[in-house]
């Protein structure tokens, strides 16, 4: 039997992903071979593995916390919404089909056996698997074909810890309501409760903890305080908390356009390591203002976002900033949007077929059926650049200079060009997600911005993003050790390899 523990939540955004990462770090620190697992994930933030497979970013940072290389088996099913009704279904890292909610619900039983095989294979290679649920296990309208919560717990025969967010209010009602809506067998799997994001004096909470334990007959394993960990968040809910104002204590203003179908907003987390850089997001209805750098991020639907930019008035503001000489950087879908035309002959993203881009780079993009998924390395002006590509379009550079020469793709040597740069170097387009994570390019780019503003350039590079993340995982693990009953959690795990819970 595979040793495992599953973290489920009373709702979305209660902190399941972060807690799984913290547990993975603790188990790794304690000498266990540990991996995260999430059978089904829904997110526009994704990642490409060394083998060119696409998976959810939460399982990537969880694998980093566990000291493991990201493996697509950690997230067999990834759903990427393409509209309000449809999602691209990615299985084992490759596009399977586009389905609406009803089609996918009918299809889930087909996936159940395959998920079980993948889980067992991954579990046989490790000491413990930390499984993450999705949303809430109390979605009683969906539970008959569930593969993400109690359905996954049954596949893995795993004990469950239920996480509730006290910061949003109604924590005891959410715990009790969730438990009571579970079937008897499902309720028996819940071996503990964690209350997350607590602010204040825990002594005031203690009477409630005793009462909820009496009501549910399930022990509270700990109360985790509200802490700010700089760990990547794949859920778009996190955008509610992003900064929308320039920090006047900083010298460089970076504005990121929040597209209607924005993806991979975590591309810009590493910019916080630059001591003089302020990052803010611009939403519909906001004015862009006068940033030093404007970034147009990735998009799951560039044709729709092209129309969004025009209808919101943001397109005109972007073009005005170009005239003023602002640095403008487009990544992936943002690169496509900077071009002259976007074509969709098979109408995969839009019924319009073709739309105009912003016209700031001499490129045209054609949307294609085959998705490019690759980790890449290359060179730009004698600087090493690294990142990963996820796109459905092929972009043709008509004139001018590419951004970089790609020399390695999924660990294979290759020779091709990526992106485009305007004649004055102020407009840059690239397909490379994560390009700011490497300190070489980040240091060089912002020194160019500093120089253009007459600021003193930095001589020393800032910290590597990878090293910064390692510090955050250790900090998270320390917090959980201090506030959770780890002895009890280990007891629950050690019972999980003795058959049904």
Automatic annotation (TrEMBL):
GO terms for molecular function: ABC-type vitamin B12 transporter activity; catalytic activity. CDD domains: CobQ_N, GATase1_CobQ. Keywords: Cobalamin biosynthesis, Glutamine amidotransferase. InterPro entries: Class_I_gatase-like (IPR029062), CobQ/CobB/MinD/ParA_Nub-bd_dom (IPR002586), CobQ_GATase1 (IPR033949), CobQ_N (IPR047045), CobQ_synth (IPR004459), GATase_3 (IPR011698), P-loop_NTPase (IPR027417). The active site is at 332 (nucleophile), 433. Residues 5-228 form the CobQ/CobB/MinD/ParA nucleotide binding domain. The keyword Hydrolase does not apply. GO terms for biological process: cobalamin biosynthetic process. Pathway: Cofactor biosynthesis; adenosylcobalamin biosynthesis. Gene3D superfamilies: 3.40.50.880, P-loop containing nucleotide triphosphate hydrolases. Residues 253-440 form the CobB/CobQ-like glutamine amidotransferase domain. It holds the Pfam family CbiA. Belongs to the CobB/CobQ family. CobQ subfamily. HAMAP family: CobQ. Catalyzes amidations at positions B, D, E, and G on adenosylcobyrinic A,C-diamide. NH(2) groups are provided by glutamine, and one molecule of ATP is hydrogenolyzed for each amidation. NCBIfam families: cobQ, PRK00784.1. PANTHER family: COBYRIC ACID SYNTHASE, DETHIOBIOTIN SYNTHETASE. This is Cobyric acid synthase. It comes from Vagococcus hydrophili.
């Amino acid at each position: 039997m595979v040793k495992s523990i599953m973290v489920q939540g009373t709702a979305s955004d209660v902190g399941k992903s972060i807690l799984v990462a913290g547990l993975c770090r603790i188990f790794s620190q304690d000498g266990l071979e540990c991996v995260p697992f999430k059978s089904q994930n829904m997110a526009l933030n994704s990642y490409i593995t060394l083998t060119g497979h696409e998976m959810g970013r939460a399982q990537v940072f969880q694998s980093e916390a566990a000291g493991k290389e990201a493996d697509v088996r950690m997230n067999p099913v990834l759903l990427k919404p393409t509209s309000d009704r449809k999602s691209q279904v990615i299985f084992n890292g490759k596009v399977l089909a586009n389905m609406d909610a009803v089609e996918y619900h009918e299809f889930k039983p087909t996936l159940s056996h395959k998920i079980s095989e993948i889980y067992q294979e991954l579990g046989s290679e490790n000491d413990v698997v930390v499984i993450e649920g999705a949303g809430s296990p109390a979605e009683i309208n969906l539970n008959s074909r569930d593969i993400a919560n109690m359905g996954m717990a049954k596949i893995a025969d795993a004990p469950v810890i239920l996480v509730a967010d006290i910061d949003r209010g109604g924590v005891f009602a959410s715990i009790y309501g969730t438990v009571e809506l579970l079937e008897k067998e499902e309720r028996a799997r819940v071996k503990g409760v964690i209350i997350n994001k607590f602010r204040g004096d825990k002594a005031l909470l203690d009477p409630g903890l005793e009462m909820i334990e009496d009501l549910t007959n399930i022990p509270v394993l700990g109360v985790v305080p509200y802490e700010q960990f700089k760990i990547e968040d794949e859920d778009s809910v996190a955008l509610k908390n992003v900064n929308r104002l320039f920090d006047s204590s900083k010298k460089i203003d970076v504005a990121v356009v929040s597209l209607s179908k924005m993806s991979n907003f975590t591309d810009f987390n590493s910019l916080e390591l630059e001591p003089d850089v302020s990052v803010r997001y611009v939403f519909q209805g906001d004015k862009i203002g006068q940033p030093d750098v404007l970034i147009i991020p990735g998009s799951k639907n560039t044709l729709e976002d092209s129309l969004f930019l025009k209808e919101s008035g943001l397109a005109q503001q972007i073009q005005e900033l170009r005239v003023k000489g602002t640095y403008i950087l487009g990544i992936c879908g943002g690169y496509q949007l900077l071009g002259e035309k976007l074509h969709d002959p098979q109408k995969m993203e839009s019924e319009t077929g073709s739309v105009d881009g912003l016209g700031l780079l001499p490129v045209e993009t054609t949307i294609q059926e085959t998705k490019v998924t690759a980790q890449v390395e290359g060179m730009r002006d004698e600087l090493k650049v690294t990142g990963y590509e996820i796109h459905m379009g092929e972009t043709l550079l008509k004139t001018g200079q590419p951004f970089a020469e790609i020399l390695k793709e999924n660990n294979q040597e290759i020779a091709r060009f990526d992106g485009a740069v305007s004649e004055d170097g102020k407009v840059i387009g690239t397909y490379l997600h994560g390009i700011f994570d490497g300190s070489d390019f980040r240091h060089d780019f912002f020194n160019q911005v500093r120089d253009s503003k007459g600021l003193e350039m930095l001589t020393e590079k800032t910290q590597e993003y990878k090293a910064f993340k390692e510090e955050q995982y250790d900090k998270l693990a320390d917090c959980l050790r201090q506030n959770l009953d780890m002895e009890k959690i280990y007891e629950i795990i050690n019972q999980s390899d003795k058959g049904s819970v």
